[in-house]
Hints:
Oligomer: homodimer
Mean pLDDT of chain A: 95
Strand order of the largest sheet of chain A: 4-14-13-12-11-10-6-5
Number of helices of chain A: 14
Amino acid sequence: MRTGFAFHLDAVNPGGPRAGVLTTPHGSVPTPLFMPVATLASVKGVDIGRVAETGAGMVLANAYHLHLRPGEALVEQAGGVAAFMGWRGPTLTDSGGFQVFSLAQQVRVSESAASFRSHIDGSPVELSPEASMRLQERIGADVAMQLDHVVALPAPREAVADAMRRSLRWAERCLAAHRRPDQALFGIVQGGLEADLREESATRLRGLGFDGYAVGGLSVGEGPEAMVETLRATVPHLPADRPRYLMGVGQPRDIIAAVAAGIDMFDCVLPTRCGRNSLVYTFDGQVRLRNLRHATDPRPLEEGCPCLACRHSRSYLRHLFLAGEMLGPILASIHNLTFYQRLVARLRDGVISGAFDAVCRDLLARLALAPEADG
Amino acid sequence: MRTGFAFHLDAVNPGGPRAGVLTTPHGSVPTPLFMPVATLASVKGVDIGRVAETGAGMVLANAYHLHLRPGEALVEQAGGVAAFMGWRGPTLTDSGGFQVFSLAQQVRVSESAASFRSHIDGSPVELSPEASMRLQERIGADVAMQLDHVVALPAPREAVADAMRRSLRWAERCLAAHRRPDQALFGIVQGGLEADLREESATRLRGLGFDGYAVGGLSVGEGPEAMVETLRATVPHLPADRPRYLMGVGQPRDIIAAVAAGIDMFDCVLPTRCGRNSLVYTFDGQVRLRNLRHATDPRPLEEGCPCLACRHSRSYLRHLFLAGEMLGPILASIHNLTFYQRLVARLRDGVISGAFDAVCRDLLARLALAPEADG
């Protein structure tokens, strides 16, 4: 890996789950790790000091969004995205590949670049692998991601294979274009739900030699079983000595399954998005704070949770949501972010102690209690 | 004053400005003091730990709002409004007189009570002086306010006099109905902009004997000169050994003028309301964060301000507002609340040092710079 970066494994359990430490120029973070999402250089509703208090060690921002607002020049002038938002630890930027294909309008992909119109004001934007590298270097996170070509699933096998191979060619161009010696670069495995395409993608990316490897194009509605199958077809073809990052995942059960399959890093908007909508995670399942059952409940959301929200009663938190007070979304987001950090910490402890399987069984049984889960 | 309460004056300057300490069962706070407004048991957008970090010593909640949502039974069950919202210091509840006359629908006032329809769901509510005392005792703040009859200004002198005298009769009934020995009760001077009515109200309230005295019915568009004139006609008739509270005021210049006139306590929604709308206060005037001039400004809002927002650049804060991030309103509210605490602290220091007039002149000159003030 690049100077200033290291990935050290503390323990690996049978079948794949790992506990490690990722070192970057801005500090070391234990893995498995969960990155709160600061799309626009802000974790929605949570000041950066409170983000640190949740136990988060590394934060993700989005190069596509920051390019549109406020522009990379401003972020660069501030000393990079971490300094811009006042975060003292490591950061990672997504290249924006996923956002281009999910948010932008009139997307056209040629071999040279993705062309599209901004989802903010419709202005034309072109993103090539080289431009993405330059963009992410200016935004200045510790870890940059290659530009990839993402297709929505389900899709014909030919379209999936075509996008995967274009992503490989773009990976090569990203490697060639990337300059910053103090920034790591991760490749992204694509290939939809096709095991052989995933293997091809992982094997060829590995041959190119990245600082870390992401699995992209999942958590797009394929269901947990398909996700795990795809990981099982992918992870064995990735080098053991580099961090593995499952992008955009996910529900607690997905994170547990992915750690079991050997994944080290995660990011997801669910903790803050659900929190804003009064849905909170606990180790005994999800809680809908607007539910009448909490109206007079003096208990915290979760006994033993050290977060700010859990210094209050469920009845107070419910009142905040019913009264439309901003503090409801703020506190629920803080709780959910804390929950995700406690979840990955327990998985790590499970790996370290060698009791990972038992820890997972216990976690999954309790999470499935989900007395108020949706669906 | 009641057991557990005290008001001690540290210094009084010529002409009236005072520096004191108000002691309550939940702690002592220096005066002049500014209370952040937690209408519904939440300071909008700011978690209670961050509220404490702004330097606030005492918080105001609103009995009318809490009666409608979530109801006083829930607040009482939680151990009172301070425990309900997790605030460890003193609290005060407004009786809701002002809200009844500004928010409620179909208000009818008889000698016995104000009857109206809830602004939430239109349901009928009746608020008598006795009911207000029972309500505020259950909500359990350290300081309760009498129920008063507020008329919108301008109003005919007869209407103002009638409401002022009804407020006096209600003051007497509140005193008779109030039971909690651990809760102070403040009377409220009314009388519009009529100096003789204000004198009559203050003199007769003083004769009834309250723990503190509020000046109500101001900051309703009368302008700063009329406000100060009214205070000059009122304050000399209030006892020197009791705290004086100017309700709902106001702009920084109003607070400076009111402290000069001998007022000790303030509350106002402006710091949080303006903060949510990207208008921030500094000692060099107001700043509109959306203004293009801040787009690339690496400086904090205010040099030397210890608040969370001032750890960031103006360009970052502007970006948050332009991108619609919740963190913009959160940080701007925190800055404004901190500004108000620093303002009253400087006024207090001015009184203590005997240099109050010079401190005021300096503050007013700098505040008037207001490069971006509205209007």
